[in-house]
Design brief:
Layout: H1 3-14, H2 21-32, H3 39-48, H4 55-68, E1 71-77, E2 80-85, E3 92-97, E4 103-107, H5 111-121, E5 132-135, H6 138-142
Helix pairs in contact: 2-4, 3-4
C-alpha cells in the first residue's frame, strides 16, 4: 500500500468511513496527475481508464482529499477550480498568465518561513500558505494581449 493511500485510509477511518472502490480509483487518478486538474478533467481521465465513477462521487471525494491534506485547491481560473496533490511535493506558488492560462510553479524555499513568521507576528499559527501571482506571460505581451482585463 502506498503511503498516500495509507494516509487517506487512516483519515477515512477517523471519520468512520472506508475507501470504496470509487474513492480508491479517484485517489489513484489524482496521484497519477503530476500537474493541475479540475474535477471534469479527472472524471474524463477515470472514464478513459474504464472506471465507473460518478461525477457526484468525484465532487464528494475531492473535499475529503483536501481535508486529509493530500490535495489542495491550487487556483481558480475563470469559473474552474484546479487542484493538485501536495503530498511529497515542495511548497510552491503559482504564476498564471491571465490570457493563455500558462502556469509556472516556483518553490517557496525560505519564503515559507518568512510568511509563517509574518503570521506569528500578527498572532496567527499559519496552517496553509497559498500564493498565486497573475499577469501576462512574455509571449502574450508580445502578441499585444495587454487589453486582457485584470
Amino acid at each position: 500500500m502506498t503511503q498516500y493511500r495509507r494516509i487517506f485510509a487512516e483519515f477515512m477511518k477517523r471519520r468512520g468511513a472506508k475507501i470504496t472502490h470509487g474513492r480508491g480509483a479517484i485517489l489513484e487518478a489524482v496521484f497519477d496527475n503530476h500537474g493541475h486538474f479540475d474535477v471534469e478533467e479527472l472524471y474524463e481521465q477515470l472514464k478513459s481508464r474504464g472506471e465507473r465513477v460518478s461525477l457526484a462521487t468525484l465532487y464528494r471525494t475531492i473535499p475529503l482529499l483536501v481535508e486529509s491534506g493530500l490535495v489542495r485547491q491550487a487556483m481558480r481560473t475563470d469559473a474552474t477550480t484546479r487542484y493538485e496533490h501536495v503530498w511529497g511535493h515542495p511548497r510552491h506558488l503559482h504564476i498564471v498568465c491571465k490570457h493563455c492560462g500558462k502556469v509556472v510553479e516556483v518553490e517557496l524555499g525560505d519564503m515559507a518561513e518568512t510568511l509563517r513568521t509574518l503570521g506569528r507576528n500578527h498572532g496567527y499559527r499559519v496552517e496553509e500558505i497559498t500564493l498565486c501571482l497573475r499577469g501576462l506571460c512574455r509571449p502574450c505581451r508580445q502578441k499585444g494581449e495587454s487589453d486582457v482585463p485584470a
